[in-house]
Amino acid sequence: MKLLTARLLIGFGLLCLILNLVVYWERTNPKRLSFSDYMHREVSSKAPIHKQPVRIIIKSLKIDLPVIPARISNAQWETTHAGVSYLVSSPIPGERGNSILYGHNWTNLLANLTKAKPGDTVEIRYSDSSKKIFVIELTGVISPNQTHILEPSTDTRITLYTCTGFFDSKRFVATAILHYPQRNDNNSYISFYIMN
């Protein structure tokens, strides 16, 4: 009986060790946030160098994080443990086109993004102390080979995503459109969105 108990405990310990190694590998896997076989086209920015995104805030989801510039190099997507990555080959958020922002689904980063819903607002702050507001229009779960969400657009949007699903095999995506306040005839503000 003691021998059986000892073997069961050793087996359980080995199983726990293997699971911890798998979780560690998944957390440090450089392909974790990437999309399959996707090469982003470089976009030339019209924004001055002193107006770069530095912070993203989604109050309804309790997300308030720094924005860190990132690149795709040799099919590897740079990631950070310090905030949200901004793909610098995409337009600066607020310029016409599809700005790509992404981050790990860790509790201190974008874990709450999976609770996003249409109508939630996303605030982007810039290095020149200005800010712009985006409104989430669409959310969904996709696989890493559905790269259409990263393609350039003719409107002004951000595509924000994180990993989700079993062993982070899927991507949770939120697409937000720039919010434009406009005056109506009664001098009060109304809103509209530029869509494709």
Q: Would you summarize the structure shown here?
A:
With 196 residues, the protein is mainly beta. It is built from one helix and eleven strands; from the N terminus they run αβββββββββββ.
Question: Can you describe what's shown?
Answer:
- With about 200 residues, the chain is mostly beta strands.
- It is built from 1 helix and 11 strands; from the N terminus they run αβββββββββββ.
- The chain has one helix spanning about 1-30, and strands spanning about 55-60, 65-70, 70-75, 75, 85, 95-100, 120-125, 130-140, 155-165, 170-185, 190-195.
- An 8-stranded mixed beta barrel has the order 1-2-5-6-9-10-8-7.
- A hairpin with a 2-residue loop joins β3 and β4.
- The longest helix is centred in the N-terminal third of the chain and has 27 residues, at about 1-30.
- It is elongated, with a radius of gyration of 20 Å.
- The N and C termini lie far apart (about 70 Å).
- Mean pLDDT is about 80; it is low at about 185-195.
